[in-house]
Design a protein that fits this description.
Length: about 90
Amino acid sequence: MSEMDAAETVPVTVYTREDCSLCEVARETIEEVSADLDVAIDLDMVDVDEDPELAEEYGERVPYVLVDGHPAFKYEVDERELRLKLLAAS
């Protein structure tokens, strides 16, 4: 991968928990939209229960999604808004 390709990869972080159906839907939406737009993403699924500080901060507020380091979505990922955020970040 060239340096230019790496710069175009958009980091997406999803704070999640086990057995979180909304988290699965969020992940599928993110993967589908990025594939549809042909925007490379670096998807990081973070289980908040594995870190007491994250569990305290996000706890029931999952999925909590960061796009390019910025808070983007809580609970549900809006497909149209995600498209705009990924395009802006890529």
